[in-house]
Amino acid sequence: MQVAIRKARAEDASAVARLFHETVHRVNVADYTPSQLQSWSPRIRPDSFWRQRFRQHQVFVAVTNETVVGFVELGSHGYIEALFVHHRFQHQGVGRQLMLALFQVARAQKEVRLSADVSVTARPFFQLMGFQLVRRTKRFYRNRVFRQYQMVRNMRR
What we know:
There is one protein chain. By secondary structure, the chain is an alpha+beta fold. Helix content is 33%, strand content 34%. The protein is built from 5 helices and 7 strands, in the order E-H-H-H-E-E-E-H-E-H-E-E. A 4-stranded antiparallel sheet has the order 1-2-3-4, sandwiched between helices. Strands 5-7-6 form a 3-stranded antiparallel sheet. The longest helix has 15 residues, at 94-108.
């Protein structure tokens, strides 16, 4: 599937908000309990929350037919804050295209490595994209424990 990758705009906030919430509840359901999912994303966050993230991080969206179908956030020091693909566009290359665009940005910024704390659901994808497991971790969202994986990718290859 061909998608356009571009920098997120303020008007993308609503689409990103819905995409995040729906992906958590429809895709991550295979690996997390309903109470964990509710803790992770209890509601669709307001546009102002996402616009603030757009200012704090480098956020890129994947767009097809004028619809946002995925997004990725690059924070400081090569840390990937988030990467989510709309539940209807899973396994169609959207995540790969987002990640390849992120690799280009990281190389242009001379990042030595990328790192991320990824969900159980995302771990296989990150491995396919060349990330190595550093260690298993736990994260807490609203008093619920989540298993995650700290992963890194050397950008000097």
